[in-house]
Amino acid sequence: VTTVGPPQPADGQQLTGQPAGQYRVVGQSPAHHDFVDKVKGALHYAADWRLPGMLHGRVVRSQLPSARITGIDASAARALPGVAAVLTAADVPNNRIVELASGGLAELEVSMPVLAADRVRYLGEPVAVVAAATPQIAAEAAEMVSVEYEELPGVFDVESARADGAPRVHEVGNTLVSWRIQCGDAASALVAADVVVEGEYRSQHVEHAYLEPEAGVGWVENGVLTLRVSTQVIEHAATIARILQVPQSKVRVIAAYMGGGFGGKEDMTVEPYLALLVWHTRRPVRMIWDRQESLVGSTKRHPFIMRYRTGATSDGTLTAQQVEILGDAGAYPNLSPRVLFAAAACACGPYRVPNARITSSAVFTNNVPASAFRGFGAMQIVLGYESQMDELAARLGMSRTALRERNFLAKGDLLPTGEPVATCVEAARTMHRAVALLGEPPTPSGPGRLVGRGIGCNRHPYGRAIWFRDKAAAWLSLQADGTLLIRSGVTDLGAGQAASLCQIAAEVLGAPLDDISIYIGDSALNPPAGGTFATRQLYMSGNAVLQTARELRDRMAPVAADLLGVPVDGVEFAAGRVWPAGTGGGGVSVTLAELAAACEQRAISTAHLSTWRGEAGSFDPRTGQGDTFPDYTYGTHAADVEIDTETGQVRVLRYAACHDVGRAINPIRVEGQIQGGAMQGLGYALTEDVDIADGYVQAALFANYLIPNAQDFPDVLVDIVESGEGKGPLGARGIGEPPTGNVAATIASAIQDAIGVRPAQLPMTPERVLALIDARAS
Amino acid sequence: MTRRRLVLSVNGADHEVWVLPSDTLLDVLHDELGQADVRYGCGEGVCGTCTVLLDGEPVNGCLALAVQAAGRQITTLRGLMGPGDTLHPLQECFLRRGATQCGFCTPGMVLTALDLVRRRGRPSREEIRYALVGNLCRCTGYTKILDAVAEYAGQAAADAPGEVPP
């Protein structure tokens, strides 16, 4: 027992933000090891590993969007010096991936081959894989694989795909899933409504455009296939085992820190191809997809068609909404059933709608598959419900904010699924704060210019759909010298997933952040955390680490109390020590090292594994009633724009975003999520479009796919509301996906304010805006 | 094609490499010399993740051939570090401002920004934006990157008032 000064805030460089009162570490923005490694350029991403004898892999991709394969001749490629393997469908032990993304609740069972055998369904579909001594030889060999095709009719948009007699992408039919959510009697309520507005809104294919292309290295070690890849989901190890028909214990997936993922690394990317090549050659193999290959062959954001009818009383109270959503799933199911479910569950936004009828379908086409992308269906749909609110406000002559305030959900209100809203709804606060950030309304910079201000509110889920009964585990160990180890299967996209867990553990156990090391993303060595997607990791693994840390603390506390001679509940863990509670500094204390030694003497383990389970629930797809998501994050964005009426160019003058995050575990990272999410949303709203014509991706160069650069848009001003009421650790809500959602609606709102017409098609290019201006003039 | 011997000077150290005339500077730095801070992002010179300084000027490693770098000073992000792996003041600003998320663009961002501040002294925010258009970031939304560069430029101007243009 030693005597030192009072407890100090944990170590680690303080960045910005103030401590959140009752917490020492949570609420601060320390520079964690991942930030330090990143600014040093010292982090090793998936493409940065090199092993002795390593081969280089390459995927041979379909050149046609819809065709029968009549023959594959790989003999010339195999004969090329330096080529170690050319594999086709015949070499895949189990060539069927069955995703059943909704857990089999509602979708068709459709399998996806690892390598196409007799039929290709989209341009860029993998047909063969090559491994060779150098990337150049692998590329050359891939060119030499000769595939003969018999072209088949294809279908390239959802409406054609749903028409009678349309070519079938899969024999079982083109509608992968149709969800229905309903409450009350929307049809009658619309007839009875004082006012009805309607609209159809369309969104486009979007590219994730993480700066790190899909990459990884695989090898065999101790008879175990090991892949170190850029992935959000190490749990794909089980799928890989099924493909190779080996026991799951023989496949290990390690997730490198990612150079961005945004959902695009939620499905497998390089994994099955690397696995086949490594297993076949028994040599290490590296695979990196070209950016151009990624643009053509990687999954995209679903284009949506959203049809809305909304009824209200003359005072602006919503009475009914009918919503029909169609999503282009592309050629294979991937995660489309869940994406379209999220869209349906969020279709009425953050508003009370007593009578609703919502349908939502994912439809197969011969386009590149669409799947997870930050926002996951709940993002696209914001344009639908917010457009309806602005149209309704215009029709009623009400202010857009007053109309929203009249209809915002409150805790305890029922959603259209019949489930009550579980936590507080601070939507109005976020709305007023976002608008306040903008300051004075803009004025036109000259003749021929129009200015406008827009807002967009949203309700975005965090956590997986509730019927999956989500869980996450974590393991903590206080080492003999008083430092702390954390093991968690979490993968880190760059949003600080690992760092947040360290802060939570530091808060509970009092270990200084510099004394904590965290091991993540290894399916063999870490307790499973589920993947990093669905804005679930702070919620799930944050709660898992909080629970594990508390259980470990409670196990050690009696030992500390004994050492200090105080009651069991009278100790406090802080600053690397345990103190008598409430001493406020000074006096006796024990170090965590002394506590670890005392636990060891008493045969009390200082390591602890614990699993946190999310709440359970069920959804009935026939009645459209039940439980959807654990909880939601609410927020509002606001923007000022100026429009050049000669060119249709939209210039964003000011942009502001405010979300209720419940509790900001690390404020600077929360701001970063909001700013980055808003910027992705600005690209989606105004510039980004993976133009696909008859199944052919038109923008096959990165130069032609316009993600925002540093000059395109203004700074994103951020205000954070901390209601303290979320289901994450210490009252946090998820913030990863939500800030992408508001943007297109906000910009559309501002354009409508400026020109008097609502854009209904994304992206809102100068050509489209000009057409709206011209149509209004004539 | 025949390989030829080349001496590349990277962060002050000379390295002998055997390269094909078609080998890009990016591939040789990343794959041959293990410079993991020089990264493939697009191969088109669009994204800037492979940025290095060639005799002090930012270039895209994916568009430069290794043979073009012979006899010139190549600086990667790692080359900015001080003794004992200490951070360059601009790196400190990136750290303090939270100007990195996934970190993949960070080396290119820092090098391009450093060149700007060396050339322009204390650039305006608009000048910083303009200088960074060739370095894409998909995570941060740029705001914190601009904050970091502006802070560093302010410090640099204060530290050496005589050496920067007004």
Descriptive notes:
The complex is a heterodimer of chains A (778) and B (166). Chain A is an alpha+beta fold. Helix content of chain A is 27%, strand content 26%. Chain A contains 19 helices and 33 strands. In chain A, β20 (471-478) and β21 form a beta hairpin. In chain A, α16 (667-686) crosses α18 (743-755). Chain A starts with a strand and ends with a helix. In chain B, strands 2-1-5-3-4 form a five-stranded mixed β-sheet, with helices on both faces. In chain B, a hairpin with a 2-residue loop joins β3 (51-54) and β4 (57-60). Classes of the chains: A alpha+beta (778), B alpha+beta (166). Chains A and B meet through α1 and α16 of A and α2, α3, α4 and α5 of B.
Key features of this structure:
heterodimer; A: 778 residues; alpha+beta; seven-stranded mixed beta sheet; five-stranded mixed beta sheet; 19 helices; 33 strands; globular; B: 166 residues
Summarize the structure.
The complex is a heterodimer of chains A (778) and B (166). With 778 residues, chain A is of the alpha+beta class. In chain A, 27% of the residues lie in helices and 26% in strands.
What is the element string of chain B, with H for helices and E for strands? EEHEEEHHHH
Structural class of chain A: alpha+beta
What is the residue-averaged pLDDT of chain B?
95
Which segments of chain B are poorly predicted (pLDDT under 50) over 5 or more consecutive residues? none
End-to-end C-alpha gap of chain B:
52 Å
End-to-end Cα distance of chain A, whole Å, is 85 Å
The global form of chain A is globular
**Which value, in Å, is the CA radius of gyration of chain B?**
16 Å
Radius of gyration computed on alpha carbons of chain A: 27 Å
Q: Summarize the amount of helix of chain B as a percent range.
A: 25-40%
Kindly estimate the percentage of residues of chain B that lie in beta strands according to DSSP.
15-25%
Helices of chain B, by number, come to 5
Structural class call of chain B reads: alpha+beta
Note the quaternary state here. heterodimer
Characterize the largest beta sheet of chain A: strand count, sense, and whether it forms a barrel.
Answer: 7 strands, mixed
Helix content of chain A: 25-40%
**Order of the strands making up the biggest sheet of chain A:** 4-8-2-15-12-13-14
Which two chains share the most extensive interface?
A-B, 59 and 54 residues
Question: What's the total count of β strands of chain B?
Answer: 5
